[in-house]
Amino acid sequence: MTAIKCIDLCKNFQQGDVVIKALNHVSLDIEEGSFICLSGPSGSGKTTLLNAIGGLDKLDSGEVYFNGRRVDQLGKGPMADLRLHYIGFVFQAYNLIPVLTAQENVEFVMQVQGVSVKERRRKSSAILEEVGLKGMENRRPSQLSGGQQQRVAVARAIVSQPKLVLADEPTANLDSETAAQLMDLLRELNQHHNVTFLIATHDERVMRYAQRLIRMQDGKIIADELQEAD
Question: Is residue 135 part of a domain?
């Protein structure tokens, strides 16, 4: 089943007198349960494509469908509701709330969703244990290493079991060992929860985990190939 369908996406940015074609007629189908990496150098369009799919960037033209529903023309309210219930985000900068504990950060989305305190606590405790942070629930981001913060961000992204997780350079600030542990975790979550993952990266270590590798350059898809994941 097709989870995401992108048709002829175009997005330009103005830099002084120069027009940057961040997305240049990009079309793409993403199957439910896939584990896909977008690769390419900085400026190739990876992040813009993630943002377009997640409704964070408005397109100049093109169409985005999520489970058969066109979403690129949704208003702010309906798009925010879609993200809240169906899409998880993992950012390079973690984007954790500094004054909240690890557990409170993980519970934040569920709190906005209106999940009861008891259920939030049960789910957040279970997912923090699953990502290897049992015993660290009450630590704030400043008391966690970079790898631990990224695990909190992953836990927050998947705790409410979204259909899709969009991850932008999730290993950029991690050493090799921590990056490998994180990627093992993402693959495990993909396989056990059937969550679709779309990961933007220029890290060769990350690309080896992908079932499908999509290479971008100058706002275009230049290669799209299936591969045997590590």
Answer: no
Phi, psi of 227 (to 5 degrees): -150, 160
The answer to whether 87 and 164 have CB atoms below 8 angstroms apart is yes
**Cβ proximity of 39 and 202 under 8 Å:** yes
Amino acid present at 205: R
Residue 100 within any structural domain of the chain: no
Strand segments (E) across 52-108: 61-66, 69-70, 87-90
Specify whether the CB–CB gap between 150 and 174 falls below 8 A: yes
Buried b (16+ CB within 10 A) or exposed e, 39-66: bbeeebbbbbbbbbbbbebebeebebbb
Concatenating the DSSP letter of every residue in 200-227 gives EE--HHHHTT-SEEEEEETTEEEEEEE-
**What pTM does this model have?**
0.91
Which residues pair with residue 66 across a beta bridge?
A: 4, 69
Q: What is the pLDDT of residues 178-195, one digit of tens each?
A: 888 888 888 988 888 888
Structural domain includes residue 145: no
In 3D, which of 229, 202, 196 has the Cα closest to residue 5?
Answer: 196
Structure-block tokens of residue 177: 């060992």
Q: What is the pLDDT of residues 107-117, one digit of tens each?
A: 998 999 999 99
